[in-house]
Predict the structure.
Amino acid sequence: MASEKQIVTTKLTGRNTDCPHCGRNLNAASIASENPRAAPSQGDFSVCFYCRTFLRFGADRYELGTEAEYKTVEPATREFAERFLKAIHIRKVE
């Protein structure tokens, strides 16, 4: 029986964690994984919690992802991420 994917959150340290689109600090990353100890690595994709921009983990910072790159993400993973984003209710913090 296959394990179900779950949201795994990792605190980000030792890197520039500002979103390159909106500039907000992203001090943690959540990924969908069957491994409860999973952590994002270079080349993995993410989405900004604040502006919902598609991002990619670079060597030491977030990079903007492209539409073409987004289309290469496994459809089930894209669907999972889109459901997760729809579930987020963000209160604007000034």
